[in-house]
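Hi all, long-time lurker, first post. I run a small reading group and we've been trying to get comfortable going from sequence to structure in the token notation. Rather than ask abstract questions, I figured I'd post a concrete chain and ask someone more experienced to write out its structure so we can walk through it together at our next meeting. Sequence below, copied exactly:
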Amino acid sequence: MGVYEWQNNPLVFLVDGDILDRSPKRLDRLRRALAMRGDAPYLGVVRPGSLALYELGLGSRPAKSSLVSAEWEERDTFAILGNLRPGIPSSRQRSIRGVVLRLLSEAIDRLKRDFNLDGNNAISLVGRALFTRFLADREILPLPLFERTEELFDTAA
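-- Answer (accepted) --
Happy to help. Here is the structure in token form:
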């Protein structure tokens, strides 16, 4: 898997089509998981001699209906995706941002309510957990340390 960037910002997640061919539902799950990251608006499925582009999304819309049709010259694909963002409603980024903020707020509120943490400690804990997940997703956090994550959150230190 890789990421194509446009002007130093993620534009298209790229994945080997052979990996997705093993399970018909894998493409839909991957589109949703990548949409939650909020980085890039497209998923490119690479196969020998072809690139299929899909919009990412949180909804239950199947991948087939989110295929981006290329009504332009192949050589212009990434420039058009980067500048015009075909198929991506302007509210998409706000929608994903809203979902993520709601989930973070709910986690903070639950820590305050169910575990009697004060606001600063709840925010700190959620922030550390989110950052740990970020490091683990990018395989930056060494595996032995990741396996002991519960110890990482015992104290502020």
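A couple of things your group might point at:
The first strand starts at residue 2 and ends at 6.
The helical segments are 17-20, 26-37, 77-84, 91-115, 119-137, 143-146, 149-152.
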